[in-house]
Structure formats: structure tokens, C-alpha cells
């Protein structure tokens, strides 16, 4: 039996501490006093960290979300040095001591590893507390140094009562409380085995449900035979020719998932094909009837035939002619507007279609000369030149309006100036005044502008005026825009002349007298369409015997499978249809046999799994009964001292004296929760009614009870961080008396910010003959 106490402690570079050595040799009571914020809790944190590898309250209250990291490590005072913690545990009765060191080398941490709840450390077994922490004395875990059962979890129950959340155990769920308390009873192995069986049982239960559902699916399948079916073997053969366009799945060697519904579907498809071949002539007649009706009731298709039949193959040439006309129209606009330097004038196109009196090179030279003269004109001349251009364009537009429209009927007077609105005697006088004004403006031009104007005039006189006339004459002979629009509308939706010709030739209908051969107008299109519709109606065959209910499926076979190729239809052996259905029937029986075998295997598997499941359930009942028996005995062992200690510390409160442990058992074989209740008046847990001071007193009583009953082999040190924070004076006095009288063999390390509590506690322990010491943390921090 070992009973360790803390002998000495070294803390380096931890939180606000540079380097502290704390001597606790042979001290029954150590009081850490001084104001808050000088390191009392830091000493407790250092002890917890070196012994358990973490600070529990930080891990349980982590607030950092996601993968957020930090630049610095919270617990290191000097970010360039590691944290070093060492503690010597002394077992005076057995004359044995052990020194444990823990090192947190945060310098290599990634940002995520600098989170407050992250403690990446190494643990070391030292010969002396002054030894360095090295790879030679590094160990794998605390348990490798001291073998204490579940020490990391029990430390908070046996040894340490925190200042910030002394009631953390009480605030756990009732089930979690029982699980933690159960770990003290050294039945961890049995609980782990029980948990493995529980996990296996749950997996088996899920598999049983899945198997049962699959069995039900099989039993609900109308294709599932009541017994193992047998069928005569049929050899595979291919019924359809290899050239068919679309493969029929019923003609495959292997047909997967063949159930009775799919089999019937395939049989119907084969019967339809058989009927189609047997009544092929009637089918073709009905197909033609449908095609004729489709044409008759489609004005667009009829008009498309009449409009495009003669011109469809010329559409590429017609499109090119239309685009040429459109380009020439744009060029004419530029030329008439005297925009001869416009980059969009396609001179190559003009030289391609027209005979100009000068070569392309000479024309380019004259245009460049005009361009250079324009560059040297002054700003005023440039503005006047632009004004003249605008006046000229307006004048031409006005003349065009007068020439092409009945202006008087639109209220337009051709003797009214289009620029200022002034009225003149007649149109001739108006034009004369406009010309005079133009000449006056030209007199304001500078020399470069005048020369440029002369060259432009010469160019128009020599070449462009005649060219404009030639372009207009040539364009007038190109395709009319309205006729082109009509042709394009029908051509855009696709037109197959060969297919149209074949249709009408097969019907014996001559359409040459109806289709347009000249592209002058389509005024009689509707009359021509009616004539063609009447010719089509005459070709309808009203005496057709083909079954209309299967026509669409027959049509699908003919068009999509046989590509409208009558020769492929002729290749099919009609005598093979029944044999093909027999082969499909054979495949169906094979798959039914396989399905029946799968069904019987599932039944067998389900029965075996259920037998194993029942066996595991029986084993679990034994485990649960024994574990709950242990739990019940454990509660019985601690409930009396716990009731006495809560009564001594709490004294009398509104619902009596003391607190009971209540296991809330469902039955004698199932105890999995733990509740703390007052002695009378309610079965509600005290966590809902006690004040923070009363809860702190309760957890103190629980810690002392657990130590009294179970802590016979471990660390005999009680660390209590400032209990006076929440407890009143009466509770504190009772607690000190309890410690002094019932825990004489324990080392107590207690912190307080109150000088009176420090003095009173040391006085009571000194008077009882205990060895005490006082450590003032403010004095240590200023050394």
C-alpha cells in the first residue's frame, strides 16, 4: 500500500511565474494566502498539469470554434522558453519517493496547437528534482511511473476541489455521475467488456432488422416461387439482324432483374413485332395515311414544300446575295453622306463587283491625300466642314422625302426650309438659298479645307457619283428583302428535298406545277397550298385493317429499331418468335430459382444471427446484474459518511440536515444514475435548489467521503482552492473541524484570499499538533 504526499514543487515559466520552488516537506497543512491574481490557483494548475497532463476546467470550457489558432501559447510567460513543471511525491511510511517532470515545448507548436485547451507535453521520471528533462528520462505516460487506477478522472474527486467550479461533478448528468463513481470501484475491465457486448448487440440488432426487411421484401414479391422451380434448358439464339439500329434488350443473351412484369412486357413487344411483320403492308399504308394527314393539317409544311422545293439547294447562293445587298446598302449610305474616309467602306467588295475608272492604288492615293489635308485644317474650318456635311445630309434626306412620298398629304411643305422653317416662294428658291448659304460657309474654310473640299468634289465627279448609280442599279436586281425573309423563315426549320420528293413520288403526286420557280412574289401561296392539300386527300386509304392500338409501338420498332429499312424486316424468321419467348421464360425460371435460394439463405442467416443475439443478451444481463450489484454496494458504502459529512459542513438548512445519495434504480438489476437529494420533502436533485455555497460544501463532503471509503492506495493530498469564496463562516468552521479530526493522515493544501481564514485554519491545526506552514504568494512573486 502506497500513500503519496507532495514533498516539493518546481514551477518554471508557467502563467505569471518565472521560477518558483515550493517546499512542502513534512507539512500537514499548507496555506497559500494573499490577494487574488498573484498565483494561488496557478500553483494548483501546475500540480494538476504535471500529474494529469491537462487543466480540466480549460478543456471542458473550451470556447474556440473551428480551426482557429493563436500566435502565442497562453500558459508560457516567456514565449521563447518551454514550460517546466516538477513535483516530488513522498511515501514516508514506505520510505519511498518519486519525482515526476512535465515539459511543454510550445516553440514547435502550430497555431492550432496554441489553443487554450491544448496541452502537448512530455512526462519524465527524475532521480532528483534538480535534474533536467531529457529524452533519456522520458516516459510514455503517468501510469508507467505510478500505476493508479483511472487517476486522470478520479483526481477531481479524490484530490482537487477547484475554486472556479467546485460543483462541476454535481452539474454532470445523473448517468455521468454514476459512470465516474463506478470507475472508483475498480471494475473498469468488466465495464469495458460489458460495453463491447452492448456494442455488438446493437450492431446485431441493426443487422437483424435489415435481414428481416429483406426477407419481407422477398415474401412480398409475387415472383418468388413457393418451392424450388425447374425448367427445361433453352439455348440462346439471336432473333433480330445485326444491322438493326437500336438493340432490343429482350434479344440479349443475359437479361438482368427479370421479373414477371418485365417478362410480360417483353412478350408484348415480341407479339407486336410478330403482328407488324404479318401485317406489314397494312402498316405501311397506315403509316402513309398518318404522314399524309400530318401534311394536310400542317399549313407550314405544305407552304414550305411549295416555297423551297425548287430553291432549297440554292439557299446558300441566295444567302450570299442577300448579304451582298445588305453590305452594298451600307456602302451607299456612307458614299451619299460623303463619308468616303469611313473605314467600313469595303472597297475590295466594290472593285470585285464594279468597274471603277481608276486602279485601287490610285484611289487609295487620292483618299490618303484628302485625309492628310483634313489633318492640317484648323479647328474653325473643321467645325464648318462638319456643319456643311450635316447640312448636305439633311438636304439629301429632305429631297429624298419629297421625291419618294406624297409630302402634301402628310402636311409637309416642300418650300419650307428644313433647317430653320422659313417659307419660300417655291422649292427652287429654297434650294437656291441653301446653295448660296453653303457657298458662304465654304468661303470661311482655310486653304487646306478648301483644297480638301475640291479633291472630294473631284473624286465624286470622277468616280463616286457614277459608282453610286451603278451600285443602286446592281442592287435593284438582287433578291428582294421581303422574299428573302420568306424563304429564310421556311429554311431555318430544316428541309429535306429528297425525303419530300420520295413522299410525293410514292403517292404519285406531281407538284412541279405548284412549286415556285421564280422569286418574284408569293401572292398565290395559300391557293397553291389548298390545291396540294386536295391532291393529298385523294391519296388517303380509308380501308385499313391494321390494329390502331399497337400502331405507335409498331411505328417505334419500324423507325427506331429497323431504321425504316424494309429489307431488315424481311430477314426475321417469324417461326422463331415462340422459341424466343421460351428462352426468356427459361431465363425467368433460372432467376426465380436463384431468388428462391437467396431467400432461403437469408432465412438461415437470420436464424443464426438471432441465436447469437439472444446469447449476447443473456451475457449482458449477467454483466449488468453484477455491475449494478457492485454499484449498489458502492453507494451503500459512501452514503452514510456522505450524509454525516454534509450534515457537519452544511449544518441545518431548510429541508433538514445532510444530503442522501439516491440511485433512482428502475429495478434491482439496473442502477445507472446517481442523484443527490435532501432528506425530506422532494426527490429533486439539490443542484436545482442549493446555493453555490451549499453546492461547494456538498462537493467537499463528497470528496472527503470518497477519500474516507476508497482512497486507501494513492495520493493522500487534498488540494482545496479558496473554499471561502462561496462558503459562509459557519460552513467554513465546520469544514476545518472535519478536516482536522477525520483526516489526520492527509496532507492538506488550502488557498484563501482571507487573512482571517488563513490565521484561523493554521491556529486550529497548530493547536491540534499538526505541522503547518504559510506561503504568501504576493511575497513570492516579488522576490
Describe the structure.
The chain is α/β, with parallel strands linked by helices and 783 residues long. Among the domains are: 1-148 and 714-783, Rossmann fold, CATH 3.40.50; 173-220 and 597-712, Glutathione S-transferase Yfyf (Class Pi), Chain A, domain 2 (Up-down Bundle), CATH 1.20.1050; 286-309 and 485-537, no CATH class. Helices cover 52% and strands 10% of the residues. The chain is built from 25 helices and 16 strands. Strands 1, 2, 4, 5, 6, 7 and 13 form a seven-stranded mixed β-sheet that branches. A five-stranded parallel β-sheet has the order 8-14-15-3-16, with helices on both faces. A hairpin with a 2-residue loop joins strand 9 (652-653) and strand 10 (656-657). Helix 21 crosses helix 23. The longest helix is centred in the last third of the chain and has 74 residues, at 577-650. It is elongated.
Amino acid at each position: 500500500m502506497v500513500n503519496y504526499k507532495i514533498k516539493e514543487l518546481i514551477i518554471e515559466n508557467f502563467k505569471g511565474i518565472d521560477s518558483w520552488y515550493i517546499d512542502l516537506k513534512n507539512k500537514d497543512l499548507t496555506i497559500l494566502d494573499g490577494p487574488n491574481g498573484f498565483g494561488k490557483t496557478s500553483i494548483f494548475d501546475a500540480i494538476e498539469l504535471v500529474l494529469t497532463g491537462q487543466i480540466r476546467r480549460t478543456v471542458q470550457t473550451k470556447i474556440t470554434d473551428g480551426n482557429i489558432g493563436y500566435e502565442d501559447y497562453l500558459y508560457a510567460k516567456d514565449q521563447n522558453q518551454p514550460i517546466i513543471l516538477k513535483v516530488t511525491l513522498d511515501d514516508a511510511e514506505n520510505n519511498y519517493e518519486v519525482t515526476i517532470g512535465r515539459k511543454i515545448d510550445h516553440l514547435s507548436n502550430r497555431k492550432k496547437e496554441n489553443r487554450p485547451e491544448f496541452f502537448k507535453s512530455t512526462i519524465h521520471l527524475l532521480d532528483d528534482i534538480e535534474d533536467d528533462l531529457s529524452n533519456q528520462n522520458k516516459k510514455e505516460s503517468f501510469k508507467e511511473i505510478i500505476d493508479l487506477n483511472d487517476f486522470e478522472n478520479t483526481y477531481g474527486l479524490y484530490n482537487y476541489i477547484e475554486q472556479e467550479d467546485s460543483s462541476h461533478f454535481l452539474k454532470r448528468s445523473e448517468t455521468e455521475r454514476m459512470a465516474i463513481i463506478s470507475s472508483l470501484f475498480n471494475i473498469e475491465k468488466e465495464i469495458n467488456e460489458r460495453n463491447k457486448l452492448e456494442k455488438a448487440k446493437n450492431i446485431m440488432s441493426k443487422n437483424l432488422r435489415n435481414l428481416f426487411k429483406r426477407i419481407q421484401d422477398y415474401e412480398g414479391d409475387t415472383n418468388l416461387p413457393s418451392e424450388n422451380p425447374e425448367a427445361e434448358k433453352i439455348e440462346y439464339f439471336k432473333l433480330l439482324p445485326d444491322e438493326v439500329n437500336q438493340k432490343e434488350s429482350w434479344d440479349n443473351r443475359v437479361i438482368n432483374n427479370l421479373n414477371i412484369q418485365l417478362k410480360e412486357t417483353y412478350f408484348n413487344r415480341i407479339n407486336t413485332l410478330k403482328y407488324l411483320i404479318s401485317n406489314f403492308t397494312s402498316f405501311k399504308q397506315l403509316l402513309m395515311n398518318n404522314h399524309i394527314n400530318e401534311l394536310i393539317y400542317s399549313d407550314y409544311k405544305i407552304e414550305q414544300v411549295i416555297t423551297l422545293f425548287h430553291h432549297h439547294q440554292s439557299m446558300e447562293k441566295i444567302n450570299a446575295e442577300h448579304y451582298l445587298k445588305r453590305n452594298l446598302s451600307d456602302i451607299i449610305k456612307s458614299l451619299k453622306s460623303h463619308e468616303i474616309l469611313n473605314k467600313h467602306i469595303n472597297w475590295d467588295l466594290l472593285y470585285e463587283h464594279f468597274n471603277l475608272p481608276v486602279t485601287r492604288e490610285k484611289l487609295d492615293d487620292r483618299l490618303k491625300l484628302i485625309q492628310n489635308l483634313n489633318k492640317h485644317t484648323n479647328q474653325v474650318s473643321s467645325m464648318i466642314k462638319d456643319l456643311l456635311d450635316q447640312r448636305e445630309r439633311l438636304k439629301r434626306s429632305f429631297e429624298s422625302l419629297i421625291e419618294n412620298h406624297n409630302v402634301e398629304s402628310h402636311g409637309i411643305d416642300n418650300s419650307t426650309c428644313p433647317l430653320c422653317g422659313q417659307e419660300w416662294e417655291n422649292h427652287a428658291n429654297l434650294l437656291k438659298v441653301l446653295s448660296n448659304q453653303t457657298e458662304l460657309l465654304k468661303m470661311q474654310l482655310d486653304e487646306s479645307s478648301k483644297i480638301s473640299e475640291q479633291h472630294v468634289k473631284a473624286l465624286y465627279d470622277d468616280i463616286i457619283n457614277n459608282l453610286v448609280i451603278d451600285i443602286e442599279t446592281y442592287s435593284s436586281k438582287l433578291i428582294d428583302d421581303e422574299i428573302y425573309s420568306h424563304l429564310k423563315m421556311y429554311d431555318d426549320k430544316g428541309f429535306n428535298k429528297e425525303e419530300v420528293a420520295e413522299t410525293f413520288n410514292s403517292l404519285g403526286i406531281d407538284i412541279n406545277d405548284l412549286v415556285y420557280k421564280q422569286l418574284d412574289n408569293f401572292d398565290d401561296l395559300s391557293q397553291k397550298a389548298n390545291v396540294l392539300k386536295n391532291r393529298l386527300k385523294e391519296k388517303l386509304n380509308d380501308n385499313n385493317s391494321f390494329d390502331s392500338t399497337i400502331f405507335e409501338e409498331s411505328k417505334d420498332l419500324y423507325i427506331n429499331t429497323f431504321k425504316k429499312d424494309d429489307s431488315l424486316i424481311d430477314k426475321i424468321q417469324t417461326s422463331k418468335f415462340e422459341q424466343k419467348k421460351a428462352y426468356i421464360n427459361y431465363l425467368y425460371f433460372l432467376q426465380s430459382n436463384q431468388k428462391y435460394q437467396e431467400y432461403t439463405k437469408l432465412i438461415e442467416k437470420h436464424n443464426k444471427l438471432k441465436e447469437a443475439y439472444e446469447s449476447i443478451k443473456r451475457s449482458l444481463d449477467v454483466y449488468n446484474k453484477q455491475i449494478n450489484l457492485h454499484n449498489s454496494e458502492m453507494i451503500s458504502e459512501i452514503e452514510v459518511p456522505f450524509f454525516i459529512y454534509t450534515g457537519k459542513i452544511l449544518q441545518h438548512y431548510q429541508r433538514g440536515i445532510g444530503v442522501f445519495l439516491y440511485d433512482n434504480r428502475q429495478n434491482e438489476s439496473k442502477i445507472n444514475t446517481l442523484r443527490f437529494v435532501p432528506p425530506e420533502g422532494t426527490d429533486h436533485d439539490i443542484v436545482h435548489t442549493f446555493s453555490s455555497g451549499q453546492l461547494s460544501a456538498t462537493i467537499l463532503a463528497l470528496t472527503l467521503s470518497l477519500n474516507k471509503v476508497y482512497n486507501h492506495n494513492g495520493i493522500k493530498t487534498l488540494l482545496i482552492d479558496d473554499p471561502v469564496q462561496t462558503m459562509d463562516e459557519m460552513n467554513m468552521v465546520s469544514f476545518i473541524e472535519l478536516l482536522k479530526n477525520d483526516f489526520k493522515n492527509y496532507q492538506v493544501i488550502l488557498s484563501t484570499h482571507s487573512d482571517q481564514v488563513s490565521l484561523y485554519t493554521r491556529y486550529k491545526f497548530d493547536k491540534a499538533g499538526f505541522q503547518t506552514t504559510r506561503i504568501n504568494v504576493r511575497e513570492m512573486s516579488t522576490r
